[in-house]
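Put briefly, the fold is written as integer tokens. The lines below illustrate.
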Amino acid sequence: MTEQPSDIAPELFSPVRTEGNHTELFVDGPDSLAMLLREIKQARHYIHFQVMLFYSDEAGFKIAKALAEKAREGVDVRVMSDSDMSSIVRMLEKYRSSGSSDFSDLKDLFVQAGVKFVASDKESYKMDNWDEERAKLRNKGVPEEFLAMQDVIQQGITLNADTLDHRKILVFDGESAVITGMNIGNKYLYEQSPADEQENIGEMWHDGAVLIKGPCVAVLNKNFASKWMVRGGDIFDFRKRHNSQESYGNDVCTVFGYFPGMKENHIRNYYLQKLKECKGTFIIENPYINDEHFWKQLSELKEEQARKIVLINPYKAKGNDYMQNESAIQCRMWEPLQKGVSFYSYRKRMTHWKIALDVANNEVFFGSYNLNHRSALHDFEVNVLVESPQLARQVLAMLKHDIEDASVKISDASEFHQHPHLHPSCLLLNATEYFE
């Protein structure tokens, strides 16, 4: 088996920085849906569309039909999603909204329109067949750097059932890309913003996306290509851009990736380093916070540094899909609160944002990464760090609203467990957290 080839494909193992980008924030379903439909409509050459879940509901078919229409026009449309997981999750949530519980309806639409589709439900090949499959892929034209990446993945995955490709990478003509934590479905891409009194507010999640234009898109397109080609998709020139400009703006973007088997999780390391070294306020909004390394770092901060950290989490929120979220917070938050970390409970509905802001440095960090063990150890993830005063202002405005209008600050330490090892919920959390 090939050893990890840092000299062959360093950009697939380490953060990649580009200048000359422009970024824009889109918040919640209506704005995000309109932006996605616009980007799809404007594509003239190719669309690369990767998400984990592609729901067969109203929003899912709206996006799928838009992609199918572009394929019929002659645009090269490639879609990658976890079709097995999409069907399972859709079946479990069928009572929530209209539509089929089976991904096959969407796949039929894609096939009839000429959309190319690759299922991302298996992340590795059987070990006893990998050498043979590797040779076939190489003869097909898959670049050696992609195969070398898969060599590492083969060693890093023990059970396909416990690994997901959690990334969301959408690329249009090599000129614009969308990085998001959203999947494609009604709970993410609803058409009207929820009012507080709406009965179904818990079914409309708070989430969004960042649109990127510029050289960063080529890095994201290569990330898409590496998985697409290794999993049996066609070979294409992932470096090709259309109507390219030298610069789209002044934003600096750095792409951080992770896949099972990597020796170092650069996304996790960014969070851990920022907790220790941020010079001013560092705000984190994340739906699932149970990574023991994160909590350990948070608990060890000196008070002066701890007072700079702000956490926003859907603690006890309506619609939260992580059964252990309440326990994860109750079992970990007591000590950080004593040190001065601020904790805001996002209420009424679920926030699915995976975003952080270093206010002093105008750094925005966002993407698919949750602060849990799945993202830290098991799943494929991608985040982008953007250095941009303009994007930082947009994100700060959103986070201020989330803090002041949508959250309750919890300052009473009795809300949390001072001695978590004595609580049954914490024992259950410790027994299951690596699989959540």
Summary: The radius of gyration is 21 Å. Confidence is low (pLDDT under 50) at residues 1-10, 95-101. The first helix runs from residue 28 to 42.
